[in-house]
Amino acid sequence: MTLYDVLPGKKYRILRVEGGSKLNSRLCAMGIIPGEVFGIYAYSRSGPVCISIKGSKLTISRGMMERVAIEEI
Fold first, then answer.
1. What is the pTM of this model?
2. 20 to 30 Å CA-CA from 18: which of 44, 68, 70, 71?
């Protein structure tokens, strides 16, 4: 399951980021690292997703969403 498959109102855990070093560095700087738990703040199938992680709200593009493996908790 990837970040693209999320549903609002549920909690998820990040399993891994499947991308190159630039993407991994960018997401790590945003706090999106394996083991972190997050919730969905706003979601649209045709646009970016807004997540709440570590008390911050972040917007993730569709391209990035498809590279973040997650699990529902």
1. 0.84
2. 44
